[in-house]
Amino acid sequence: MELEVDENDLNAAGAEVFANGGRKGIRIHGWLIESRTNSILNSSTVQEWEKKLETSHLPEMVFGENTLILKHLNSGTKIHFKAFDALCGWKQEALPPVEVPAAAKWKFRSKPFEEVILDYDYTFTTPYCGSGAIEIEKELNGTKISEETGNLHWEDCKEEIDLVALASKEPILFYDEVGSEYLK
Its family (predicted)? Predict the structure, then answer.
């Protein structure tokens, strides 16, 4: 689904849209919101990930280079969502295989040699809720480089999401989704 964004809405919000290859996003009120898309991982990268994760099971299709980035430009605070980090969470969670009631009935009717025994959570359920870092821009020999340092420190707060603001009918200024157009 492609969403048409009104140029007047962008200007009124003080937003700037950008697109460059597999990167697209928006700069607005000191924030960079960016999505990066690429093709499905090739077999050698899948094997590399399996080795790093110490598993022989990954989802059938992994868009490993796809990411969503939310970055506060002045502070360099960055929250991003990456497939590998999510799979690390899945691996650490080590949930038992999911067994639905229909599967139990099927298992009862099948012969023991026909049973497929899964030793992993094939739903790839993960507690992953994003990765965070501080990104510092430096200049080295006239070249601008970015360097990530440490993890963010999260604290509980009393503030809540403003549901009235969330429900407002303001125009959507940036939209992206992973769809079949990224299958290469």
Answer: Belongs to the TIP41 family.
22 occurs within a structural domain: yes
Q: What is the pLDDT of residue 107?
A: 61
- pTM here is 0.73
* C-alpha–C-alpha distance, residues 163 and 136, integer Å: 33
When the pLDDT of each residue in the chain is averaged and rounded to a whole number, the result is: 81
- The predicted-structure confidence for 93-140, as pLDDT tens digits, reads as follows 877 666 666 666 666 665 655 555 566 677 888 888 889 988 877 666
| Exposure string over 44-76, b if 16+ CB within 10 A, otherwise e | eebeebeeebeeeebeeebbbbbbbbbbeeeeb
Structural domain range at position 166: 7-88+128-182
Note whether residue 162 is domain-resident: yes
Largest CA distance in the chain: 70
Residue 118 lies in a domain: no
Q: Got the DSSP string for the chain? A: ------HHHHHHHT-EEEEETTEEEEEETTEEEEEE---PPPHHHHHHHHHHHT-S---SS--TT-EEEEEETTT-EEEEEEHHHHHHHHHHH-PPPP--HHHHHHHHHS-GGGPPPP-S-TT-------EEEEEEEEEETTEEEEEEES-PPP---S----HHHHT--PPP-------GGG--
